[in-house]
Amino acid sequence: QVKVRVLPPPIVKVLVVVLARLGSTRFPGKVVRLLEGKPVIVHLLSRLKRDLDASVVKLVLATSDAPADDELEGLAKDAGVDVVRGPQSDVLARFAKCLDHFDADIIVRLNADNPLICPNLIQNVYEALLANSSVDYASTILEETFPLGMHVEAMRSSVCRGANRYAENFDWYKANQKRVIQDWDMPDYSW
């Protein structure tokens, strides 16, 4: 008789989830279009993997379970990034499903079609939550103070799970949240 020991999911402080799928209606396959000879998603995942602190952050690609997105799964795995797949029509369910695989205090939402996102900005958003336990949600999009392509949303994992139970998209939480970091001085992002 074989004894099987089930281990709990590994605990990380911050789960950074890149949402991607190939079924866009406006620009299908945009995240696998070549940029300097590599798919856009590979540039993004490689940069995030290199620049985010692996001792604090777990990077994951969330895509749909549609066969068309098998290509994204392969590209992510080749880049050394774990993949979680979920319903094609429910972005929040795919996002929240990542917490079934990786436990975390904070979950961060990024879109794969924002390949120039600044890792320091991502870090500032999740560190704001880690530093303030009375805050549930932090974002660069509540007020349009950052350019397009620099959108980051971070929330406590419990909030994500709760929103997934009660909503079909992130608008519910944004409309009903109570404690939000809305403004902070933008750090110097001179390159």
Poorly predicted parts: 178-191
Major sheet details: 7 strands, mixed
Compute the average pLDDT.
84
Total beta strands = 9
The SS-based structural class is alpha/beta
Coarse shape: globular
Spatial strand arrangement across the major sheet: 5-4-1-6-8-7-9
Portion in beta strands: 15-25%
Task: State the helical fraction.
Answer: 25-40%
SSE pattern: EEEHEHEHEHEEHHE
- N- and C-termini, Cα separation: 60 Å
What's the alpha carbon Rg, rounded to whole Å?
17 Å
Number of helices: 6
Provide structural commentary:
The chain has 191 residues and is of the alpha/beta class. Helix content is 32%, strand content 23%. It has helices at residues 40-51, 70-78, 91-101, 119-131, 157-166, 171-176, and strands at 11-19, 34-35, 38-39, 57-64, 82-86, 103-111, 137-139, 153-156, 180-181. The strands form two sheets. The protein has a seven-stranded mixed sheet. A two-stranded antiparallel ribbon has the order 2-3. Helix 3 packs across helix 5 (157-166). The longest helix is centred in the middle third of the chain and has 13 residues, at 119-131. The model is unreliable at 178-191 (pLDDT under 50).
